[in-house]
């Protein structure tokens, strides 16, 4: 649910389509948000990972939550 909320936030705030989360998307988000590209790559990589692995550990969830909170606080 966190990734769905995050992608909706990106669509509404930055007017970016989120159907393809690739390098072009990351670059566009970096340009519009000013958030470090390395951190965006980590967030998007994890969202893509979630699509392939329906079950994640509590540690992975906590780490992802922390990454998203940093994004929200710094953009």
In a few lines, what is going on in this structure?
By secondary structure, this protein is an all-alpha fold. 76% of the residues lie in helices and 0% in strands.
Layout: helices, strands, pairs:
Layout: H1 2-14, H2 23-33, H3 37-52, H4 58-74
Helix pairs in contact: 2-3, 3-4
Task: Describe the 3D structure.
The chain is mainly α and 75 residues long. It has helices at residues 2-14, 23-33, 37-52, 58-74. It starts with a helix and ends with a helix. The mean pLDDT is 95.
What is the number of beta strands?
Answer: 0
Q: What are the low-pLDDT stretches, counting only 5+ consecutive residues below 50? A: none
Coarse structural class: mainly alpha
* N- to C-terminal distance: 20 Å
What proportion of the residues is helical, as a percent range? over 70%
Helix and strand element order:
HHHH
What's the average pLDDT? 95
Oligomer class: single chain
What is the gyration radius calculated from CA atoms?
Answer: 12 Å
Major sheet details: none
What's the overall geometry?
globular
Strand content: under 5%
Alpha plus pi helix count:
4
